[in-house]
Write a structure and sequence with these properties.
mainly alpha, 1 helix, 0% strand
């Protein structure tokens, strides 16, 4: 009976160690994805601003004032 408990305890400890390792790996992946997401958000914001600026410049260049102004 003691051997059975010992074997079960060892198996549980082994499984727990494996799960802890997986959680650490997944946490690392989540952290890296969070960093990537922040970089991509900043890049999208930068490109949106650039597109908006270009669009405003295009609109201004198409609205030429008549010569009498």
């Amino acid at each position: 009976m003691a051997d059975e408990h010992s074997r079960r305890t060892e198996k549980l400890e082994s499984n727990l160690a494996h799960l802890e390792h997986q959680v650490e790996q997944l946490n690392g992946v989540v952290i890296e994805q969070g960093k990537l997401l922040e970089r991509l958000k900043k890049e999208v914001q930068r490109q949106s601003s650039a597109m908006e600026t270009l669009e405003l410049e295009r609109i201004k260049s198409n609205n030429v004032k008549p010569p009498h102004h």
